[in-house]
Amino acid sequence: MSRIWRFGDDVNTDQIVPGRYAPYMTSEAELRKYPFIEARPEFAPGVQPGDIIVAGRNFGCGSSREYAPQALKLVGVGAIIAPSFARIFYRNALNLGIPLFEADLDWLSDGAEAQIDSGSGVLHTSRGAIQLPQPPTWMQEIWQAGGIVPYFREHGRFPGEAAR
Amino acid sequence: MAQTLAEQILSHAAGRTVQAGEVVTARVDLAMVHDSIAPSVIRILHEQLGAERVWNPDRIAVAIDHVAPAANLQTAESQNNLRSWARSQNIRNLFDVGRGIAHQVLIEERLARPGLLIVGSDSHSTAYGAVGAFGTGMGATDIALALATGQTWLRVPETIRVQAHGRLRSGVTAKDVALKIARELRADGATYQAIEYHGFDSFSLGERTTLTTMAIEVGGKAGIVPPNGPALANEYAPSWLTIEPDARYSRTLEINLDDLDPQIAAPNHVDNVTDLRNLGRINVDVVYLGTCTNGRHEDMAAAARILRGRRINPQVRMMVVPASSEALQLAIADGTISTLLAAGATLGTPGCGACIGRHMGVLGPTDVCLFTGNRNFRGRMGHPDAQIYLGSPEVAAATAVAGYIASPNEIERT
Ligand code: SF4
Fold first, then answer.
1. Which residue ranges form the domains of chain B, and what is each CATH number?
2. Nearest to residue A62, comparing CAs of B214, B123, B137?
3. Does domain A2-114 correspond to CATH entry 3.20.19.10?
4. CB pair distance less than 8 Å for B153 and A39
5. Residue B154 contacts A where some CB pair is shorter than 8 Å
6. ipTM score for this prediction
7. Alpha-helical segments (H) within B67-173
8. For residue range B59-69, what is the model confidence (pLDDT) as tens digits?
9. Mutation test of the interface with chain B: which of A63, A90, A96, A102, choosing the one with the most B Cβ atoms within 10 A?
10. Spatial CA neighbour of A71 closest among A99, A33, A98, A40
């Protein structure tokens, strides 16, 4: 079983990885040590591959730094669920192939056990299974490809024209 | 069907008529990458995309502004790599250390122009809306794809119309309008949407940039001021870019400029905004005047008008970091800089400075800062316990004199 990491509203990219810990300032190899280094220092040492972040509104607001979602990907975050996401973060996470779901699960407590099947969008919790709202098919295709670069190489084009 | 400015620009860039909600592939007119993100962009270009050449070196701008000059060996080496990469790609628009913050420089260099689609490796790329462009921030992967292909994909955003009425009183500025907008729309109020700012025809280019850099602070994908009014009189706007009265807006926010008071965003959220007069007494240790939002010549000159003949409070350290070398030169030429220095301020190299807490005045744990920038997130300018209050350049100057957050009118009466 994976665990749930709960966060509040308006989690910004300076909280996820402060600008001072950017690969530019430290090194790419160290990035996995820095997610939530100041906002929640127990996160990076404790998180296990497949764990799920459940947060409040406007997750990922602030900077365009892709190293924020990249740091979460490096430690193996399996999915992020929040009622809403800031658009640059959403796009960066999608590009990196991190599954995101828009849902308000504020009843789920921090540390709860859960398991997600990101393909079907089903979250298994101690209170049963929940079907999460699925993003449009073309977005799922980007995750399935493993991100926008593999998607682009595979299709030879951006998602837009397919979604028309 | 009538279109918003965002729909018009994205239709042009997509080569077909599009409307809000559609996902389009669009031609990029200009792509900006800065020193902080460039190493990742170059790595993705080479390792993931196998792109040895960029699509068009003349439509790419590179800025070394985020840690300028280099603060340590790592950034020094990284910047050298970026310089040699840019040269090897024949990118002539390389704005090196000291030239200034990318957003300000691209506007000064007239690389940002009305009707263009501009993507930048920086969330404050919404700045380019000050000249009537669609500017938006993206991450390293999107920027690498844009550099390789000259294209990007976008969901055409709905648009919020901000409609101003009246005129600002003395001591009240574009920054107060931007903070008022954050107060009303909240930090996620414009997520996935564009903002159009109407009723600002009398605003200078700098004032418009103050508004548009802060579009992202309410989640905006772009913030566009129609390219009308004296500030844009010499700017050629394409004939297809017009305000269409019947365009559909998701919401209209009316703002009365006449009765607006100086606004302050208190820690740690940009939308934690209150009228300065209701703030209570907040003593400060640091006043920081600069950034893409408020580091221009007119911002420094406004602060100097208040500081002329006065000394900053001995408890306060005041940093001035011009947004660009052009802003600095203007401020030297008209005596603004000597006024600021005579008052006790100190000067940094044009660029981002301590805005992201990396160098040139980072805050310590007990510091309380009045900042003319755009973000007061916890840890943004250094130690996570530092307290950051956002306000205008005039408020910054008044605060530097008072030693606590003060309005310009309060100081000018003394
Ligand atoms: S001045 Fe601050 S907000 Fe503006 S581009 Fe630089 S780091 Fe970003």
1. 5-255 (3.30.499.10), 263-413 (3.30.499.10)
2. B123
3. yes
4. no
5. yes
6. 0.94
7. 73-88, 102-108, 140-149
8. 999 999 999 99
9. A63
10. A33
